[in-house]
Design goal:
Blueprint: H1 10-13, E1 14-16, H2 22-28, E2 35-40, H3 45-60, E3 66-71, H4 77-82, E4 89-94, E5 97-103, H5 108-119, H6 125-139, H7 143-156, H8 161-174, H9 177-185, H10 195-210, H11 216-225, H12 230-242, H13 246-259, H14 267-279, H15 284-297
Parallel strand pairs: 1-3, 2-3
Antiparallel strand pairs: 2-4, 4-5
Helix pairs in contact: 3-5, 6-7, 6-8, 7-8, 8-9, 8-10, 9-10, 10-12, 10-14, 11-12, 12-13, 13-14, 13-15, 14-15
Length: 299
């Protein structure tokens, strides 16, 4: 059977990768077109359901996107660095960076919709510029200004997932947790596993945890009095993050992982992963935190 004109061969658009070839297969290749990374394992039942669906959808995209599969049992370093805790997990890389993703075995229609969103510019140029402006304002600490821009975008398109997720994060940053929760509830069911939504949800959960803690100074005194009080140090990390002191929060959790990896069922590492989800893959604290965590776990 002749290959349809313009279509990329199956062995080119779908391949396996290793820790050694990940940079070439994913990071470098994603600078040419989006690359999906399917994190899977042989024992994972839902993975066996999702992978054929992914392969079919990617081949139907005729070269607009590539699929790279990574067995996390054979190659644990990369998923460990990225904070992948459950599989199947699919992360889309664009221009060398994680750009979107989902977890779980989605049906074919949702996978196809995900690819369409990834390969087509569904946000107009002006809206895209506004979204970048809002994201930048939020990153710089101007949550109120960011919220205004996200609201402006939602006035034009009430189903915009990036704007809904951004507005939720802005509400979290200002302490308006009820509004954040209500905003996340507006995300369509089919899109609640999107990376941006997951990040906003993680930020909300962390903020809710921080509300139950005491003042930072009291927790700092507890840790100073007993450096081996891991619970106090853990609580201090949550409180520091709630004050926007990400680097300090990172330091406290890394200290627990160094001292006692198994404490509280690996609780410090799991909390770090939730921080990374909330902060986003390109945040400086996330990048540094993943490097530091990897240096401990894979030393």
């Amino acid at each position: 059977m002749l290959q349809q004109a313009g279509a990329a061969p199956a062995d080119v658009v779908v391949k396996d990768t290793t820790t050694q070839t990940f940079v070439k297969d994913v990071i470098e290749e994603s600078k040419r077109q989006p690359v999906l990374v399917d994190f899977w394992a042989p024992w994972c039942g839902p993975c066996k359901q999702l992978t054929p669906v992914l392969e079919k959808a990617v081949r139907a995209a005729k070269g607009k996107v590539k699929l790279v599969k990574m067995n996390i049992d054979e190659h644990p370093a990369i998923p460990g660095q990225m904070g992948i805790q459950s599989i199947p997990a699919v992360i889309a890389f664009v221009n060398g960076q994680p750009a979107d993703g989902f977890m779980g075995a989605l049906p074919e229609s949702q996978v196809t919709a995900f690819l369409e969103r990834l390969t087509k510019d569904r946000i107009g140029g002006e809206a895209q510029d506004l979204l970048k402006e809002a994201d930048a304002a939020l990153a710089e600490g101007d949550a109120a200004g960011a919220a205004e821009i996200y609201a402006q975008l939602l006035a034009e398109d009430s189903t915009s997932v990036p704007a809904l997720a951004g507005l939720a994060r802005a509400y979290v940053a200002t302490g308006a947790l009820d509004q954040a929760r209500q905003t996340l509830a507006m995300v369509p069911e089919a899109k609640r596993n999107d990376a941006a939504v997951a990040a906003a949800r993680a930020a909300l959960e962390i903020a809710e945890q921080a509300k139950t803690l005491g003042p930072v100074t009291e927790l700092e005194q507890k840790v100073a009095a007993n450096p081996l009080d891991h619970q106090a140090r853990f609580d201090l990390a949550l409180a520091l993050n709630g004050k926007g002191r990400r680097q300090d929060a990172l330091d406290q959790l890394i200290a627990i992982v160094k001292r006692d990896r198994k404490w509280n069922d690996d609780g410090a590492r799991k909390q770090l992963v939730q921080f990374f989800d909330a902060w986003g893959p390109t945040d400086e604290a996330t990048i540094e935190g993943r490097k530091r965590l990897s240096s401990i776990l894979f030393a």
